[in-house]
User: What shape does this take?
Amino acid sequence: MEGQVADYIPELAKADPRHFGICIATRDGHVYEVGDTRQSFTIQSISKAINYGLALEDRGEEHVLSRIGVEPSGEAFNAISLKEGTGAPFNPMINAGAIATSGQVLKKDGQSRIDRVVEYLSGFAGRPLQINQTIYRSESETGHRNRAIGWLLRNFGIIDEDPDEILETYFQQCSVEVTCRDLALMGATLANQGVHPITKKRAIAADYVDNVLGVMATCGMYDWSGEWIYRVGLPAKSGVGGGILAVLPGQLGIGVFSPPLDSQGNSFRGIKVCMDLSRELALHMLNPTATPLSAVRLAYQGGEVVARRRLPPSTRELLRQHGPSIQVIELQGGLTFTTIEPVIRQAANLAAEGSKHLIFDLRAVVSANSVSFILLANLSTRLAEQGVNIAFCQPGKTMTMLRSIGIPARQIFATLDAALEACEDALLLEVTGSSWRPETPLSLRSCSLFRTCTDEDIAFITEQLQLRRYAGGETMIPAGDIADEMFVLIQGTVEVQISAGENDCKRVDVLTAGMAVGEMAFLDGSPRSANVVAMETVECIVITKDWFRSLDQVRPTLKILLLQEMTREISARLRQANLEISALQRA
Amino acid sequence: MEGQVADYIPELAKADPRHFGICIATRDGHVYEVGDTRQSFTIQSISKAINYGLALEDRGEEHVLSRIGVEPSGEAFNAISLKEGTGAPFNPMINAGAIATSGQVLKKDGQSRIDRVVEYLSGFAGRPLQINQTIYRSESETGHRNRAIGWLLRNFGIIDEDPDEILETYFQQCSVEVTCRDLALMGATLANQGVHPITKKRAIAADYVDNVLGVMATCGMYDWSGEWIYRVGLPAKSGVGGGILAVLPGQLGIGVFSPPLDSQGNSFRGIKVCMDLSRELALHMLNPTATPLSAVRLAYQGGEVVARRRLPPSTRELLRQHGPSIQVIELQGGLTFTTIEPVIRQAANLAAEGSKHLIFDLRAVVSANSVSFILLANLSTRLAEQGVNIAFCQPGKTMTMLRSIGIPARQIFATLDAALEACEDALLLEVTGSSWRPETPLSLRSCSLFRTCTDEDIAFITEQLQLRRYAGGETMIPAGDIADEMFVLIQGTVEVQISAGENDCKRVDVLTAGMAVGEMAFLDGSPRSANVVAMETVECIVITKDWFRSLDQVRPTLKILLLQEMTREISARLRQANLEISALQRA
Assistant: This one.
């Protein structure tokens, strides 16, 4: 086996060189592990990277940068490397910088520095970590060079107090015990904008994640950092305990543990494993094999997908003709400059081609940064000036953001259906100059089911059939019932609803005066699939199964006529549904 | 204005300090620009980064690494910084490393070094670039320190010939004229795996993109490189001409031009612009605000979405019952380890829950790296051992990859429809032990339209209606026709097809013996919406409009019965379509 176990203190030299563990933790907390991933070892220099985050949180970026640089030194980890003039260590990954970093950590809330450091590291691991006291004592007893560094830092005013306590903090911090699995989860926490993927607790302020990863990227692997980024392409930090922690930003964390070290002080097998993983799994962050796409999940136009409501045949036809004036853009994934920028272009093109209503469906958006919403807000303002109306629907978690960029409530809809309905109504009004809603109460002749009836048929129906009235809110048809009646609406609006969870229901259809209600189950004998509820006072003609059956003998021509009208209507709905399926299955 | 225009040669000192341009180029070649983005200036040190790619292509990574390191030196750009012992320059971004890099470029195919360098740079810019001869002469006349470096490199054997010609190449390469827009497109080319986003020509082998970006990330901004990654988080290179080229890997390129330089030799305003852009547009590569998600676009089960064919009612019911045994997973975007890994988990869970047929729909996949397909291949093998069948459909560009990982042709389907059909047939066979296809020719009574007829009705139909035969391939109904007939299939299979482009057609339905054909247009009088083609010898009963109308008088009870059956069938199709829409609209 190549490489040598660290032996600058006797305790480290006792490490078993055969230990070997590899672990990958994903951003959603799934952990893949093989080998000795639950074996404890001391974190050593890997603590430098994490602890840098604590110093930033305690003191702020500018204070910390004024004391400790972030430039690679091109020198070994224990080189003293202080900048001429200021005496600031080159970066927080060399010993001088790491000791200076520990010195920036505040004693706070009755906690000592080391208590706070251990608690901070534990947040990244997602479990309480412990100090290995034997190794700590050994580190402390032999840490003469580090004591020299501490006094130099004191000399230059990089630390504000005598270094003894800071040095003990540093020795203890390096002696914290972790496992390979801990390292992978610490990495996944950094990949996950600072939130531990399993405990879901924030370990580091989101703003400082890039700073910690930044110093890992340029200085994490001692004087092999350049080659590491060149070959492996992952911000990483190694420790002389044999651990390596690597991060694919935004994606995953890797932990490797194998004690034998190479001449730069990095785990020999750890380096090889990371090189292999990066190549085999294509993880090099600088040449991603897949790149973010436009956030558009699906785009279709009005008329293809329509609001869940029944329209009179002539209105349906108008909507199909003028449909392209409404465009629905369904967004998905994470909205960032790169994913939203092509959406802005696409929307501007649609407007230039004459569309007057753009609906952004936000249902499948999982995250959005502020720049993406600023771009959407600018688009909305710009298109409004061109007379184009923008609607947002199903905002979910992005609701706060929509309101914060100044999108007025009237442009935001809870459901796609509501947005489509508003746009369709506006479009139909533009096209016809009047509402498509019929003036009620209607005559029987104006109801589509009866439109081809003879005068005698109408008289017959008027005489034979009962008129029924429902109050607003009343359930006209309960789901599950046997379908022994159907209705023709003379006045009022009804909703077809299916239950969606405990106390909620989802509207699947809306019918207005002139339309037949419940004819499908009525005709095919299946139980009612949904509730039908009166939205306001409703008047309707009731067709009973018995009466309908009696027509076979009494008035077969009327029955034929009614069946033909019902079939025509169901066929029209099937054609619309097929159009919608085509639109939804489009690539 | 802060900063000083470079004045080490008189020609550079003539630059107009007021020039200022900012440009962003996206991976798909859209360019945003503001200010003096078309103003020419000399590329200077930015050429070092690009030219490093040419040296790698000419000599290979190991050769180049043996001559030129990739470690940040922590020193200024003109420091001599050669490694003790080997004399290798620390990295290709300092002058020593850049001259050594130029020395690795081969004279080839009758072209001089500088011709090849200019051609290479031009590939990145997407247009032929020129050398500014005045600046070149000025660089050459004053390049004494660089000549000293050249001779030191010669002394250490880093370059194999006397340095004169190599130095002239270097001076000329630095004097190539570019614009701010060129820089942004060069950056976009690196972001786009080495392919120029507009010319679509490859400028650099994909394998070397991460190497070029690697040295830019760690050494691109002279001795401010660490702070640059810390604050801006984009691999970048600056030049004393006032240009900065920055790259967000996989996403976009940025070019900035402003001649006044800071004390490190970086464009003063360029740095500020990049810091602002990175913060305002959230471009820091180490803390992405959106992260890759599972590649699953949509998942649904058999019975929800079904093959585009008509099944007998009882078969349809069986399929709905056993549907969850078939699972369709629609993938999208770029497949990588990170996006495919959750898919593998999801598929394994579905199999564990009892699904026996998994269909991966690849239609919306835009790219896939080999690791993602290796994981899919492993999944396929593992699940096959558990008796689960995996099918892939609509592979498009990924077809070659599917075959290369050893997926047999029988598991690959051109359309989702074909995959669904195969899985449904296999499932129905498992469930019933026999084919659902009826034995033909059928009696009239076995046809669903006639199933409730009385014996007298059947006799009446047999006597009155004509039997017609079509040969396989014959068009039974041409799209656009007036619908004055409908058919009931006694024997054979027909397809409903709509034309899809010039000489292609898409199957939208398949009907087998026992089913009614063309009843919708027949009933509602609309023109035929699709072609109906006999797939084999077909025998059918022909129902004409005249005969159907005559029933009103002659045999109204039969007409009522037929209308009820047709309505029942159309209603069943509408219910299925609604189920499918629900599945397709699921979040």
The domain at 444-584 of chain B is CATH 2.60.120.10 (Jelly Rolls). The two ends of chain B are 53 Å apart (CA to CA). DSSP finds 21 helices and 21 strands in chain B. Chain B touches chain A through 102 residues (CB under 8 Å).
